[in-house]
Amino acid sequence: MRYICIEGPIGVGKTALAGLLAQRLEAKLVSEAAEENPFLEKFYRDMRNYAFQTQLFFLLSRHQQQRELLQPELFHHTMVSDYLFDKDRVFAHLNLTEHELALYDRIYEFLAPEIPKPNLVVYLQARVDVLLARIRQRARQFEANIAPEYLEELADAYNHFFMHYETAPVLIVNTERLDFVTSREDFSELFRAMEETTAGRRFYSPRGQGR
């Protein structure tokens, strides 16, 4: 598990888990600063007019950050990222028009070969009502206008993406009854499931269903 990526829809707990894993593994933490995107708050208020600017900013900033991981002084370190570069296309296909997507894909295909591939992806899932509750609890200003309908579409798009993702092993985690932040036992069980995920797709539930 030299390079681990944590993924899932907005509010599912990616950053919290990535931070805990980085501590456990004494790894470099790669965190996406979404609030640095100057178009994001406008996007949630007016998706149609700000989708392309928002997506392009994310694509270029993620590319720059991921390329830095290939520097010699970092390449041999264990790394944990709270996002997967490939998921950028999930948002692009969800939010862009046909012509915008065609231009986006040309830029993406030019940049993607330079990105390091993960050894493991942990995909976190939760129901939309759970995601909304977590988003409200953390109270980020730029997320205040996220609609439940958008989250529903996003969760469906994530599920479709990871049912077809083949680049790295994927551990799919039901987080609704999982408290890896405050429960040492929950975190240890999840970590064990990660260690056992060496190929394909594996499902993990804290109640043991679907393992």
What is the fold's blueprint, element by element?
Layout: E1 3-7, H1 14-25, E2 28-30, H2 40-45, H3 47-67, H4 72-75, E3 79-81, H5 88-95, H6 98-111, E4 120-125, H7 128-138, H8 148-163, E5 170-174, H9 184-195, E6 201-204
Parallel strand pairs: 1-3, 1-4, 2-3, 4-5, 5-6
Helix pairs in contact: 3-5, 3-6, 7-8
Question: Top keywords for this entry?
Answer:
single chain; 211 residues; alpha/beta; Rossmann fold; six-stranded parallel β-sheet; 9 helices; 12% strand
Structure characterization notes:
There is one protein chain. α3 runs antiparallel to α5. A 6-stranded parallel beta sheet has the order 2-3-1-4-5-6, with helices on both faces. With 211 residues, the chain is of the alpha/beta class. The protein starts with a strand and ends in a 7-residue tail after the last strand. The protein is globular and about 45 Å long. The protein has one domain: P-loop containing nucleotide triphosphate hydrolases (Rossmann fold, 3-Layer(aba) Sandwich), CATH 3.40.50. α9 links the parallel β5 and β6. The model has no long low-confidence stretch (mean pLDDT 90).
Overall average residue pLDDT: 90
Rg value:
17 Å
Uncertain ranges: none
CATH superfamily: P-loop containing nucleotide triphosphate hydrolases
Strand order of the largest sheet: 2-3-1-4-5-6
Oligomer: single chain
Gross morphology:
globular
CATH topology: Rossmann fold
Helix count, DSSP H or I runs of 4 or more residues? 9
Total strands: 6
Helix-residue proportion: 40-55%
> What string, H for helix and E for strand, traces the elements in order?
EHEHHHEHHEHHEHE
Largest sheet: 6 strands, parallel
Distance between the amino and carboxyl termini: 20 Å
User: Any guess at the CATH architecture?
Assistant: 3-Layer(aba) Sandwich
